[in-house]
């Protein structure tokens, strides 16, 4: 079935540690890929996006993501996590030729001092 | 900064009442969306619109209805609220991209509780 999968529902890291959040998609063609962050009680904010070209994309707040076609993945990374990064992170896709934004199930990130 | 607004932010209402959740954007975006967000975080697309007088149902069946009479306004209505409608509702908009994908801008959400 076509889907966006975030295998990790909940991740806990220490402040200063590195972070990787996983995202896999299952569609016939490579969709447009996005990562959004949702802080408590807030709407969603775009962190970064991949449409084409360089497979390593830089986003806001020190985040980056790497597109790997062979693995159908678009994992989000940050080398050193800050306490303010605690939030919910959503991977999302837009299928080419449509304008429907489809979300994964989300990963809740907790950061301990 | 995104210019998309949802009102109210919080709503507690009794079963059987009619409610309308408001969503307005000042960016001139053609496309607007409503998502329902479960307590466990997952977002489900329930309605979308490609422009004035255009409305479509999303991937998750919903008893709510929407209208798009003006570009900037995309209200969601529940004719008779039930406890099963308790959820957070997020509105979003995107500019026209010709199917190439574009950043979505989100409102802060309306948290609806039906008692």
Which key features would you list for this structure?
heterodimer; A: 113 residues; mainly beta; Immunoglobulin-like; six-stranded mixed sheet; four-stranded antiparallel sheet; 12 strands; 52% strand; globular; B: 115 residues; seven-stranded mixed sheet
Structure description:
The complex is a heterodimer of chains A (113) and B (115). Chain A is an all-beta fold. Chain A has strands at 3-5, 10-14, 19-21, 24-26, 32-38, 44-50, 56-58, 64-68, 73-78, 87-94, 101-103, 107-112. Chain A has a single domain (3-112), classed as Immunoglobulin-like (Sandwich). In chain A, the strands form three sheets. In chain A, strands 2, 5, 6, 10, 11 and 12 form a six-stranded mixed β-sheet that branches. Chain A starts with a strand and ends with a strand. Chain B has one domain: Immunoglobulin-like (Sandwich), CATH 2.60.40.10. In chain B, the strands form two sheets. In chain B, strands 2, 4, 5, 6, 9, 10 and 11 form a seven-stranded mixed β-sheet that branches. In chain B, strands 1-3-8-7 form a four-stranded antiparallel β-sheet, with no helix packed on it. The radius of gyration of chain B is 13 Å and the shape is globular. The mean pLDDT of chain B is 91. Chains A and B meet through β5, β6, β10 and β11 of A and β4, β5 and β9 of B.
